[in-house]
Amino acid sequence: MMLLQFSSAQGPAECSLAVSKALQRFCLEAQSLQVNVEILEQEDHCRFGTLRSALVVISGECSASLSEIWCGTLQWICTSPYRKNHGRKNWFIGVSPFTPTTFVPESEIRFETLRASGPGGQHVNKTDSAVRATHIASGISVKVQTERSQHANKRLALILIGRRLELLQMEQQMALKAERRQFHHQISRGDPVRIFKGMKFEPI
Question: What are the DSSP calls for the chain, one per residue?
Fold first, then answer.
């Protein structure tokens, strides 16, 4: 089992289209190699059919070799389908192995087992291998039924919750930075609570 991240790296809509097209091509190549691909998470772009990013899990004997030929920077040469007469024809996206950096102890998670749904054949219909995991402190919840074993699905659930906690932390940091920027514009120029003077910054 391997995790791969497809990303437009905050590029324009053309890069998000390239991510979508790359993922489709990747799935076709995976199918020819009998490598199973499941999309765990994806972030849609505002334009229909485009993706800012996608996190996928792959499994099968040829997973490593498939990953090796895809990981890195991908270049897409194409005239922009969105901007007429736009001069740029080269668009770049990235594919990289995803290694979680936030470890979430199982003691912080509430697990529920349930019967997997959707495609997967008789095995999916007869086993309670799917897992719903909820991070108690934040309320973040994920459902994973990618793998056939409950243990493997628990491991993926922990990875996904760790990722979402990282994203939440990033969003909070960005919001704090925005607050700080806004604070600069809100500082009152009169009625100071304290006054200092000179290079020694001495209080008056």
Answer: -EEEEEE-TT--HHHHHHHHHHHHHHHHHHHHTT-EEEEEEEEE-SSTT-EEEEEEEEESTTHHHHHHHHSEEEEEE---SSSTT----EEEEEEEE--------GGGEEEEEE---SSSHHHHHH---EEEEEETTT--EEEE-SSSSHHHHHHHHHHHHHHHHHHHHHHHHHHHHHHHHHHHHH--SSS-S--EETTTTEE-
CATH class held by domain 106-184:
alpha beta
Question: What's this model's pTM, rounded to 2 decimal places?
Answer: 0.62
Of 117, 111, 122, 95, residue with least CA distance to 156? 111
The domain limits of the chain are 2-97, 106-184
Residue 55 has pLDDT above 90, yes or no: no
Pick the CATH number of 2-97 from 3.40.50.150, 3.30.70.1660, 3.40.50.300, 3.20.20.80: 3.30.70.1660
What are the tens digits of pLDDT across the range 139-193?
A: 888 888 877 778 878 888 888 888 888 778 877 777 777 766 675 565 555 666 6
